[in-house]
Specification:
476 residues; alpha/beta; two-stranded antiparallel sheet; 16 helices; 43% helix
Amino acid sequence: MADEKPASAGGSEPPVAPKTDGAPKAAPKQNPFFKMMGMPNFRFKLPSRNWMIFWTIVGSWSAAVYYDRREKKRIQKKWADAVAHLAREPLPSNQMQRKLTIFLAAPPADGLLNAREHFHEYVRPILVSAGLDWDAIEGRREGDVRAAFAEWLRKRRKMAGEATKNTVPDTELEVMIEDMRNKLGVKEWDGPAGDIVIGRNTWKEYVRGLHEGWLGPVDMPEEVEKALEEQSRPDGKPDEQKMGDPSSSAKTEDTLPAEESTVVHDSEQMRSIDEKKAEEKPKEDEKPKKPKQPPPFISTSAYSSAPLPPSLPSELGPSAVIVFPHLLGFFNTPIRIYRYLNKRKLADEIGREVAAACFARYRPFEHSSGSMATSPFVEDSASPTAAPHQEDKSSEPGDRDVWEQESLLKKEELDWHKSVRKDRDPNKESVWNDDMVLDPRIAGRMRRFYLDEADVERGLALVNAHKREAEEDVSW
């Protein structure tokens, strides 16, 4: 027909474009509820690509930090609840509370504040929950903990009656407190007190001070006194005479002529003298300076020839070694981020060790004799016993006893700053850099806390029972 259009060659019609009148597309209708609230008609859509990247990173980081901190609190609460029943145990009125000793030292190339924060964050909450008391031995420099611990042991030996040139005076505060307690009938804690050592560097100083305190002499040797004098006089020159020395002033007056030696009392001179006296008074009121760190009283090579003191007990106090990861450096940022997001694992490891110290179950340190190839600690303690600056050719490194004390926290030495090894003097002893040296007589008497899972389950069961009783009382 004439009205019919011819078909296309392909047999299909071309697509017809939609009819548009030029008006914009109407916005979707708003929810009546939101409209009655007076809220604008938002059009929900996905954010842009850059905003998606930003919110994904921020959300993932926030979620990871929140999850880690929540699990960390839960784990710390678990260990705190496990030892909480110890604080409710009755204690006689004439018996002192159990007191632990905390050994704390500044990490290499850093200050003491980080070590204190580590103690307050991980160790202190569990000790408080167990109702335990503690003393602290701190060190800001290498060797401070060693010197303080060795001096404390020597003082104990003197108080036990060992022969010494310088006896402990009765006016010392510690002696006066002990005498007062004996008069009042106050007794010490019957069981073992124990020590908590934080960090590998502190642990090495602890072991060195333990050997020095028990195997070294009670009195200061002459070579140590000479070393202290050299430290006080670094130039090696004798101290100059002070201006206020009467002998020096008398000599100067004798050498001066008669006219110059006569003293003229002037008002201005008297004022200057009074001002000098006023300035000298505050200096006299200042606290005495802390004594410098003395060198060790005994070298590591003299351990075997040193006699045992009569006051040495058959078992030394048990100890717990707490991990203290501390890593510095910009290029170690990925490792530091990983550790920052996994503090829950660190809290669980530290909580286990502190709970073991609270329950006061201990065992001897393990050791293996013979070839180091069959030693269970060969991976962590493959270094020789003697220090690098000492020459000990009597025993080969393969035929010696390997003690468990050597391998504890040895991996932390890999995180130490390079300045610790760079600034080292090879002719002097360095407790941090030298290998740990152990005497079998001391190492065999050392004890270590261990955790029995039955104690943890019993402690948690007591806490749950106490909570149920409290809920029943509230319901009544």
